[in-house]
Structures are given as structure tokens and as C-alpha cells.
């Protein structure tokens, strides 16, 4: 592998006496679409929080394009090219859909959150915002307050904000949670479009989404990666099947690589 875009070395995280992440090593290549799966409570969100700087590591390191990012603040990591979405939405509910996306665009163009400026007049910002709204299918709802959007559209807006910042690495935390089948299909199409040419790291419970979207999958169980590989390798891995014994094991049967 060339220099990985993202490299985790012996990443560990404890909360008090509880060791939640127990030495994770992971390398993600440029342009790769990588999914992290695992049973509830395995530590997937915690791992996301460690990579994006929301939590500090107990030990180990995280590198982005060869630069150590562990220890940096989330906004610094974002500035270095890594953007993430949240399970609990990150949107400003009193602002319009357009203003929400515009915040991400402003950030990417180096204006920061310049709420006090008359940013509506900046042509580049307007154009980029409209382009993203169009891409994610929210242009016709651009002037609505974000809080009035239906749930699935709010999740779409969350993805739009995440990509609006122009980051090279996009991390999505359960982007299709709570969506219907058709909403999930639309979200997957959007993610595929938005992630083109970028590196994607995704936590997702829906195995159809995972096996359809990911180039490689890592399986996290009790804070350890027990397997990393192509979808076909993961589906056939007995350790993975064991970790998913019960309901979710059936999803591996149905999932297509
Ligand atoms: N800030 C915290 N303080 C203490 N314990 C925490 C904290 N954050 C997470 N945990 C614990 O870490 C464990 C892993 O949680 P985490 O949310 O990372 O799992 P997950 O794999 O994302 O689960 P799910 O699939 O249900 O979202 C859980 O036992 C959780 O209670």
C-alpha cells in the first residue's frame, strides 16, 4: 500500500477501568471505501470519536496523510482534510437548509463560521452551496428551516454538510439509521456520488448498505478488530459469523459483495 490516507496504530481508549478500544491497527488507502461493522457496544462510535478528535486517545496514534492528528482538536483535524457526520444530527435546526450547507462551504473556503458577514453575496459560496444542494436533492427545500425537514431529509442534509467542507476523508456514522428501504437506497446513491474521488470511512448496521458500498470491511468486536478484508472475505469468515450469531448472521447470507 502507498502511504495510507488514514493510519491507526495501536489505538487504545479506556473510560475509567473499562478498556473500550483495545489496540486497533488499521490502514486505509486513498480513495478506499471502508466500513466498520460490529455488534452493539463494540466501540465503533468511540473509534470514530477518537479518529475525529472528539475523544483523546489513551495510547497509540492516528495519522492523516502521514501527519499525526491524535492530540489535535476536531476543528484542526477538519482543517487537515477529515470531515465526519454524527449519529445525532449536527444541523442547525433554526437555520434554513441552504444556510446549513453554506456553513460547511464557508468553512471549506476558509471563511470559518462568519455568520456576521453578508456571505449571501459571495458568488463562489452561493454557487458551491447551490451545487451541493442540487447534488443531494435538497434544492427545492433550500429555504425551509432545517427543523421542518422530514427525518430522512435531515440525515441527507447531515451528509451534505459533511461533504460541503470539501474534506478528502469523509466519515459517516450510521448514515442510514432509521431510514426506510427506499430512503436507504437514495442515501446510498448519494453517498456513492458524494464520496467519488474521496476516501470514505463508514459505520453502518445495515449489511445491505455495507456490502454494497464498501471496498473493504473491518469487524470490531469488544474494541478489537477481529477481521479486515474484502466483502467476500468478511462474509465467509467464521470468526465474523460467530460474532454475529443470531439475527444479524442471516444478513450475511443475503448480502451481496
Ligand atoms: N464517554 C463515555 N464514557 C464511558 N463509557 C463510554 C463512553 N462512550 C462510550 N462508552 C462505552 O463504550 C462502549 C462502546 O460504545 P460505542 O458507542 O462506541 O459502541 P458502538 O459499537 O458504536 O455501539 P452501537 O452500535 O450501539 O452504536 C459502550 O459500552 C459504551 O457504554
From TrEMBL:
Chain segments annotated as coiled-coil in the UniProt record: none
Alphabetic keyword roster: ATP-binding, Nucleotide-binding, Transport
Start and end residues of each ABC transporter domain: 6-247
Family matches, as SMART domains: AAA (SM00382)
Xref: SUPFAM superfamilies: P-loop containing nucleoside triphosphate hydrolases (SSF52540)
Keyword Transport found: yes
Pfam family, one: ABC_tran
GO molecular function ontology, one term from the record: ATP binding
GO terms under cellular component: plasma membrane
Lineage: superkingdom: Bacteria
InterPro entries xref list: AAA+_ATPase, ABC_AA/LPS_Transport, ABC_transporter-like_ATP-bd, BCA_ABC_TP_C, P-loop_NTPase
Protein name: ATP-binding cassette domain-containing protein
Organism of this sequence: Pseudooceanicola pacificus
Amino acid at each position: 500500500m502507498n502511504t495510507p490516507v488514514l493510519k491507526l496504530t495501536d489505538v487504545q481508549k479506556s473510560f475509567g477501568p473499562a478498556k473500550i478500544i483495545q489496540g486497533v491497527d488499521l490502514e486505509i488507502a486513498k480513495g478506499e471505501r471502508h466500513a466498520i461493522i460490529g455488534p452493539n457496544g463494540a466501540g465503533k462510535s468511540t473509534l470514530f470519536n477518537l479518529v475525529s478528535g472528539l475523544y483523546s486517545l489513551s495510547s497509540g496514534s492516528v495519522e492523516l496523510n502521514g501527519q499525526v492528528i491524535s492530540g489535535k482538536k476536531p476543528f484542526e483535524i477538519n482543517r487537515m482534510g477529515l470531515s465526519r457526520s454524527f449519529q445525532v444530527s449536527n444541523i442547525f435546526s433554526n437555520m434554513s437548509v441552504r444556510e446549513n450547507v453554506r456553513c460547511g462551504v464557508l468553512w471549506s473556503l476558509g471563511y470559518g463560521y462568519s455568520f456576521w458577514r453578508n456571505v449571501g453575496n459571495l458568488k463562489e459560496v452561493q454557487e458551491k452551496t447551490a451545487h451541493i444542494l442540487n447534488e443531494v436533492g435538497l434544492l427545492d427545500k433550500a429555504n425551509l428551516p432545517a427543523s421542518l425537514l422530514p427525518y430522512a431529509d435531515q440525515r441527507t442534509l447531515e451528509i451534505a454538510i459533511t461533504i460541503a467542507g470539501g474534506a478528502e476523508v469523509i466519515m459517516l456514522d450510521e448514515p442510514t439509521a432509521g431510514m426506510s428501504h427506499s430512503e436507504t437506497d437514495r442515501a446510498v446513491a448519494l453517498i456513492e456520488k458524494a464520496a467519488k474521488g474521496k476516501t470514505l470511512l463508514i459505520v453502518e448496521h445495515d449489511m445491505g448498505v455495507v456490502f454494497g458500498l464498501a471496498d473493504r470491511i473491518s469487524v470490531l468486536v469488544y474494541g478489537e478488530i477481529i477481521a479486515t478484508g474484502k466483502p467476500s472475505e468478511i462474509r465467509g469468515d467464521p470468526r465474523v459469523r460467530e460474532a454475529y450469531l443470531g439475527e444479524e448472521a442471516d444478513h450475511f447470507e443475503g448480502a451481496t459483495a
